[in-house]
TrEMBL record:
Protein name per the record: Uncharacterized protein
Organism lineage string: Eukaryota, Metazoa, Spiralia, Gnathifera, Rotifera
First and last residue of the signal peptide: none
Recorded GO MF terms: RNA 7-methylguanosine cap binding; translation initiation factor activity
Keyword Cytoplasm: no
Organism listed in the record: Brachionus calyciflorus
InterPro entries with a match to the protein in the record: TIF_eIF4e-like, TIF_eIF_4E, TIF_eIF_4E_CS
SUPFAM superfamilies from the UniProt entry: eIF4e-like
Length: 228
């Protein structure tokens, strides 16, 4: 995790693009995993959120420049749940990533946390990022959030939440953790993320601290690459 985005050549390997053939085999069924504990409470409560950037021609100052304040204003709380049944109630009625149009995010964070860089629970943390070809976000997003609910990352309270970010050219999946300086934790999260999403060994993931995001007002620029 020593090379910055600016130092890496812009080639086909510098952005992680998962091909469909690399992922549709040997993928575990997250639905089956959670259905086996359908009457059990979750370890933590979580909330679903939604955010959509206003279009450029919208009659709003938010459309002119993306800032943390504007992002906060655009966040909408969908619902909070602490059991598997309540999760499926919300999830079954939510729009799937591939149906979103424009610049939009679906977010799932622990109850009481706002999905913002500057939130007290997030300010010392960061996130792993996986870039996806269009058409793969639905399955990857479902696998990721079910793995979080099933406590498959095994890092205690370090997981804050996850985001699927739908953009015009690509989709991005990210998982947020509390402590960006804890390399043992971030490495475990990275390894589990690659397994959960069934990523090929050569996949290059990106990491960015929220402090760096606040400095450059960007979620996905100037990230750190990690290829091991």
């Amino acid at each position: 995790m020593s090379t910055t985005n600016d130092q890496v050549q812009k080639n086909d390997q510098s952005e992680t693009k998962i091909s469909e053939n690399e992922n549709k085999e040997n993928t575990p069924s997250p639905t089956l995993f959670l259905s086996q504990i359908s009457n059990s409470p979750l370890e933590y409560g979580y909330s679903f959120w939604f955010s959509k950037r206003p279009s450029k021609n919208a009659n709003s100052t938010n459309a002119t420049q993306a800032t943390p304040a504007n992002y906060d204003a655009n966040l909408k709380l969908v619902g909070t749940f602490n059991t598997v049944e309540k999760f499926w109630y919300y999830y079954a009625h939510m729009t799937r990533p591939h149906d979103l149009v424009g610049h939009a995010d679906i977010l799932m964070f622990k109850e009481g946390m706002r999905p913002l860089w500057e939130d007290d629970a997030n300010k010392n943390g960061g996130k792993w990022i996986v870039r996806l070809k269009k058409g793969l976000a639905n399955r990857c997003w479902e696998n990721l959030i079910l793995a979080i609910l099933g406590e498959q990352f095994m890092v205690g309270e370090e997981i804050c939440g996850a985001v699927v970010s739908c953009r015009y050219q690509e989709d991005l999946i990210s998982i947020w953790n509390k402590t960006c300086s804890n390399q043992a934790v971030t490495s475990r999260i990275k390894d589990t993320l690659k397994r959960i999403l069934n990523l090929p060994p050569s996949t290059i993931l990106e990491y960015k601290s929220h402090n760096d995001s606040l400095k450059d007002n960007s979620s996905f620029r100037n990230t750190l690459y990690c290829d091991k």
